[in-house]
Design goal:
globular, six-stranded mixed sheet, Diaminopimelate Epimerase, Chain A, domain 1, Diaminopimelate epimerase, 2 domains, alpha+beta, CntK-like
Length: 207
């Protein structure tokens, strides 16, 4: 990361079978899982089971019509995984990461995110994300506990899913939600009978 300042997170994959992804902080990362799907499938359509969370969990990932997708592992029902803290703030617990979803953009999102992280960081095991959402855009800030990194991320797949889970909690129905990331790209979260998945484009950039 010191050699490539544009890198926000680092994931390690294995050339051996079965396909495996380990993040630097041991956390789950939806976007890294989608990137692993792109790598293992060579950009071609297909599905595979990917070991994540340091081998503690398997998720289905794949490529479909040029879109890389990843299942988002849920640790409980959505109703029990989403907790309303205030009228504008929700806690969403996922496998390997907890998100705070805040409705509306503050004037200084990074400063406000630090306040939330300082208040709630002792309650999480792996990492804590703060997702500010307004209309169809999000601003994600993620703190990884084990390696003590803090980034205003250009995109956050699990954070996008966290917003969709809040919507599901409110209305209790099928959700398909596309959110514009700070990068300008879009990630779509889908919650249906098949589970929770995120879809979006993946671009390979040589370092």
């Amino acid at each position: 990361m010191s050699q490539h300042p544009n890198v926000e997170q680092v994931g390690f994959i294995t050339a051996r079978q079965p396909p495996k992804l380990s993040m630097a902080g041991g956390e789950f990362c939806g976007n890294a899982s989608r990137c692993a799907a792109f790598y293992y499938l060579g950009g071609a359509d297909g599905v595979l089971a990917l070991e994540v969370c340091e081998g503690k969990r398997k998720v289905n990932v794949g490529m479909e019509k040029g879109q890389a997708w990843s299942e988002i592992p849920l640790i409980d029902s959505i109703e029990r995984s989403v907790k309303k803290l205030t009228d504008d703030l929700y806690e969403v617990k996922l496998e390997g990461i907890t998100h705070l979803v805040s409705i509306g953009y503050p004037q200084n999102p990074k400063h406000m995110a630090m306040k939330f992280i300082d208040k709630y960081k002792e309650t999480v095991e792996d990492c804590l994300g703060v997702i500010f959402v307004e209309d169809d855009e999000i601003y994600p800030v993620v703190w990884v506990k084990k390696i003590n990194t803090l980034f205003c991320e250009t995109a956050c797949g699990s954070g996008t899913m966290a917003v969709a889970m809040v919507e599901y909690k409110k209305f209790g129905n099928f959700v398909e939600l596309g959110l514009r990331q700070p990068s300008g790209k879009w990630i779509t979260a889908i919650i249906d009978k098949r589970g929770a998945r995120i879809f979006g484009e993946v671009e390979e950039i040589p370092l």
